[in-house]
Design brief:
alpha+beta, Nucleoside Triphosphate Pyrophosphohydrolase, 3 domains, six-stranded mixed beta sheet, 16% helix, binds zinc ion
């Protein structure tokens, strides 16, 4: 998955650093990041690649290498670097730089979205010693927000099949598992039951937690569960949200072999590999 960066160690402890010439500089425009591509390998610019040093905000480090971002942006594109969509980069190597680019994008968007106080409208200030933004007028303190969501593998043990869905309104929709965001006032278990009922009209039981995953593309922490269908197995598709939903056997389901970064892909491959055993906790 995207956060599985092997022996590399992600350190999000906020400790103010001064950038060095070797510090990485994560520059974003819309959903793109400044990078250099060689085949399927990416590299990110360091401060020494820039003729004029931009004003930088510290983000995090990986293996002691610091990552910064110019919150005000920079018009400079060092030679060999260009802006590439973060979605395409899901297939790029090395994965720790992809993870850094996507995680930094979430932080960049958080700083960018909180330049003004949501309570009183006054310009905010970045707290230099912690990952906080504060309002000098009304003393509001703003922390990064993470939206929990679920990925659900609904299994019918009697026939060893799993429910796969396709979203409506997306040009290149792939088969995926049931998924959705947690609503205010709801537990994560209730999210599972509600999303499965809303998307495919099934009752579920015997939830088994699988793994969780940060998914910075949508400011999300995804929590993956497998569960059993409870009672009637007839699917009722929510046509407003989904285009298609079906029970598929291990042999019928797609492999998503190219998808190394998503929890959904890993859970689908696991069911394909071991079937009903996904329900063993
Ligand atoms: Zn305020």
């Amino acid at each position: 998955m995207i956060q599985d960066i092997g022996e590399h160690i992600y350190d999000n402890h906020f400790e103010p650093h001064d950038p060095t010439p070797r510090s990485y500089v994560l520059c974003y425009r819309d959903a793109t990041v400044l990078c250099r591509i060689d085949g399927e390998t990416i590299d990110l610019p360091c401060l020494r690649d820039f003729a004029t040093a931009p004003d930088l905000q510290y983000l995090f480090s990986i293996d002691g290498m610091d990552f910064f971002t110019p919150l005000a942006g920079t018009s400079e594109e060092p030679e060999g670097f260009s802006y590439q969509t973060l979605n395409w980069l899901r297939f790029a190597e090395p994965q720790y730089l992809l993870f850094a680019a996507v995680t930094g994008w979430q932080l960049f968007r958080w700083y960018e979205s909180n330049r003004y106080c949501g309570r009183c409208g006054h310009p905010t200030q970045i707290v230099p010693t912690s990952r906080e933004v504060c309002c000098p007028a009304c003393n509001a303190v703003i922390y990064p927000k993470i939206a929990p969501g679920v990925i659900v593998g609904v299994v019918d043990p009697a026939t060893e099949r799993i429910v796969l869905t396709k979203y409506a309104g997306r040009e290149h929709a792939h088969f995926a598992l049931v998924a959705g965001f947690t609503e205010i006032g709801e537990s994560i278990e209730q999210t599972v039951a509600r999303e499965v009922m809303e998307e495919v009209g099934l009752h579920v039981k015997n939830l088994v937690f699988y793994k969780s995953q940060p998914w910075s593309y949508s400011d999300t922490l995804l929590v993956g569960f497998f569960c059993e269908v409870d009672g009637d197995t007839a699917i009722t598709v929510d046509r407003s949200e989904l285009k298609e939903a079906a029970w598929l056997t291990r042999d019928e389901m797609p492999t998503r072999a190219e998808d190394k970064v998503s929890l959904t892909g890993e859970m689908m491959r696991l069911f394909r590999a071991i079937g009903n055993d996904v329900l063993k906790s």
